[in-house]
Amino acid sequence: AIGISNMGAYATVVKKCARSRDLSVALMNSNEMIEQKVEVTEIIEHLDNELKSISIHSSGKDLRHIKDLEGSFLDELDNRVKRGGSIAGLSTGIDELDNKINGIGDECLVVIAGSPSMGKTLFCQTIATSVAVDQKKNVMFFSMEMSENQVFERFVSGVGNIRPDKLKSARLNNEEYGRIDTAVRELRKSGLYITDEPKQSVGQVRAKVRRHKIKHPDLSAIFIDYLGLMKLGKADRHDIAIGNITRDLKELAKEVKVPVFLCVQSKRPQNVKDKPNMSSLKDSSCIEADADLIMFVHRQEIVEPETTLKGITELIIAKDRHNDGNGTIYLEKANGTFNALSIEDAGRIEHQEQSKVAPKQRGFQD
Questions:
Q1: Is residue 69 exposed (0-12), middle (13-18) or buried (19+ Cβ within 10 Å)?
Q2: Position 227 confidence tier, pLDDT thresholds 50, 70, 90
Q3: What pLDDT, on the 0 to 100 scale, is given for residue 342?
Q4: Residue 247: Cβ within 10 Å count
Q5: Which of 51, 116, 168, 342 is the most buried (most CB within 10 A)?
Q6: Any bridge partners for residue 296, and if so which?
Q7: Is 285 helix (H, G, I), strand (E, B) or coil?
Q8: Which of 283, 272, 279 is nearest to 296 (CA)?
Q9: How far apart are CA 275 and CA 316, in angstroms?
Q10: SS3 content of the chain, % helix, strand, coil (to 5)
Q11: What mean pLDDT do residues 347-361 have?
């Protein structure tokens, strides 16, 4: 008999039976797909999504009173004091950026946005080089646009400080050959792992990350280049399909406790004087909602050839959920990588930009 005294135990049994039934249905559906000779990767993705859904709905985390969190907060505060003011998250290798955003948090979805030819991929490679080569940490780089050989060449260019056109033409002197040799040796010792499989679905990415995390528990960063080339799942609208991807990537970052960097294509500003902002993102509502950090890579000379910002790349921090680090950092290209401008040069540029924004007013003034 079911009474108040054993109601909790009965509810547990009912939940367990429901989980078993859901699992049985998922396995049966997957078996039917096998019999219908559906592509193996699609079956794996389907089963992976079903198991994830069962797991989410079959377990829940009890609420905790806020006083139960004070111990972990005070421990973290003590750790911050011991760090002596150093950044809390993953270093990007760009000091000006690290100081502004306090590094990249373990569970962050970081969106690197920009219109074509602005330098999104190069910026991601700059951070990946810092993490994998300089910091000797483990990194996954999903390239859906360039081949593995093209990606490798670009990393050699950045690490070896060699102009990309020099590598393309192979017109190299002995000193440059020496730098190539050094770059190859550095990459050999790095923690960088690359895949160039095109049109990967978020399910395939998730499966690769989980397998890699088991083999390499020190995984520190995941780069995906780029959202527009990912395989979309079934959805009623395009924006919903995009939202499913960004939501799943955010969940992946939380699951493996590793930041995910996602390249996203943005629209060009309608007015050449306008800087990119949230409305520049395609399907911006879902991307904006899921991302912890959104940064636009912008080269004004692409849209305004006569600009005073020739050779300058602006890194515009449009959203920083955890540190309120909004603002602009000025970078310059340097043979396959980005370097931040000095404080003096950045200050001079900001002064020039501010003086252009404030035109003289006509008429009488109070």
A1: exposed
A2: very high
A3: 72
A4: 15
A5: 51
A6: 113, 316
A7: helix
A8: 279
A9: 9
A10: 50, 15, 30
A11: 64
Between the ranges 15-24, 67-76, 119-128, where is the mean pLDDT highest?
119-128
User: Is residue 284 left, alpha or beta, with left meaning phi > 0 and alpha meaning psi from -120 to 50?
Assistant: alpha
Within the chain, strands assigned E span 109-114, 138-143, 191-195, 219-225, 260-265, 293-298, 312-320, 327-333, 338-340
Per-residue tokens: 211: 């397998």
Q: Is the peptide bond before 226 cis (omega within 30 degrees of 0)?
A: yes
DSSP readout, 149-181?
HHHHHHHHHHHHT--HHHHHHT---HHHHHHHH
- Can you read off the two tokens belonging to residue 1? 């008999």
DSSP E strands, 234-351: 260-265, 293-298, 312-320, 327-333, 338-340
pLDDT above 90 for 270: no
pLDDT at 360: 47
Q: State the Cα angle at 184 between 179 and 185, rounded to 5°.
A: 95
Question: 32: which 2 tokens?
Answer: 């039917």
- Under DSSP, the state recorded for 306 is T
Q: Which amino acid is at 316?
A: I
Specify the length of the chain in residues: 366
d(CA 113, CA 264): 5
Residue pointed to by tokens 């990946």? 128
Q: What is the largest CA-CA distance in the chain?
A: 89
Hey, what are 310's tokens?
A: 């020739």
The C-alpha atoms of residue 96 and residue 332 are separated, in whole angstroms, by 13
pTM: predicted TM-score of the whole model, two decimal places: 0.77
Torsion, Cα of 229, 234, 238, 239 (10° steps)? -100
β-pair type (191-195, 138-143): parallel
